[in-house]
TrEMBL record:
One of its GO terms (biological process) is galactose metabolic process. Residues 146-208 form the GHMP kinase N-terminal domain. Gene3D superfamilies: 3.30.230.10. Keywords: ATP-binding, Kinase, Nucleotide-binding, Transferase. This is GHMP kinase protein. Residues 43-94 form the Galactokinase N-terminal domain. Pfam families: GalKase_gal_bdg, GHMP_kinases_N. One of its GO terms (cellular component) is cytosol. It comes from Ancylostoma duodenale.
């Protein structure tokens, strides 16, 4: 098993709050992220073999719960979601051979590997459903590179905790456009590649959440940036998943 320093080394300055200039997170949250990165590193070794740590990058995104306003975001209403301490880790490297025409992805949730062919903007109907989220981000960001990547998550699939939005925000291993632009890009992925007619809430809160704060969002297009408001949510709030923040 890789030691603690592996998770710390691979993440370096890419921890969620550092990447987006958020306030520092509590030590137990940082330790949890490092631990998940270590597990992702072991998964990477299993599928791709040894690789110098300096060649690897990792990125982390949380799941979310919604406290008020289900199904309101695609009606341009108000919602109150917040991030929770369940995470998706994407860890990988640029492929050493960029002449090849595909990206390799392994997930801790699925037994079979995923191969995504270039050009990424060509929608392939036989692509596994979860692969369309990855393909869509690579296509809409104009990425022309190939990667070897593992995805490791403790967000239960199909639980309504936004595992797909967390994956979208981190699959390129590089920051997406900041704030609202990032959320809008990831919603386009849902609409155009995954064919999910969702609202903006999931992508918005994962792009902009702060630790132990709910995020009040006016989902109307003209007001998203101007009217968002962070609301402190006490750790012992009585809301089950939030008690572990």
């Amino acid at each position: 098993m890789a030691d603690y320093s592996i998770g710390e080394k691979i993440l370096e300055e890419r921890l969620y709050e550092k990447e987006t200039n958020r306030p520092p997170e509590p030590e137990h949250v940082v330790n949890l992220k490092h631990g998940m990165v270590r597990e992702a590193y072991e998964l990477f070794l299993t599928h791709f073999g040894a690789s110098p740590v300096d060649e690897l990058k990792a990125a982390v995104a949380p799941g979310r719960v919604n406290l008020i306003g289900d199904h309101i975001d695609y009606c341009d209403g108000f919602v109150l979601p917040m991030a929770i301490p369940l995470y998706t880790v994407v860890l990988g490297r640029k492929a050493s051979d960029q002449k090849r025409s595909f990206t390799n992805v392994f997930s801790s949730h699925f037994p079979d590997p995923l191969v995504i062919q270039r050009p990424y903007d060509k929608i392939v109907t036989e692509c596994l459903s979860w692969g369309r989220y990855i393909q869509g981000v690579l296509a809409l960001t104009g990425c022309g590179l190939c990667f070897d990547v593992v995805v490791h998550s403790n967000i239960p699939l199909g639980s309504g905790l936004s595992s797909s939005a967390a994956l979208e925000h981190r699959i390129t291993l590089e920051p997406l456009p900041r704030g609202v632009r990032s959320a809008e890009l990831c919603r386009r992925v849902e609409h155009e590649y995954a064919e999910v007619p969702c609202g903006i809430m999931d992508q918005f809160v994962i792009a902009l959440a702060e630790h132990a704060h709910a995020l009040r969002i006016d989902c109307s297009r003209k007001q998203r940036e101007q009217t968002r408001k962070y609301i402190h949510w006490p750790r012992k709030s009585g809301v089950g998943p939030l008690n572990h923040l």
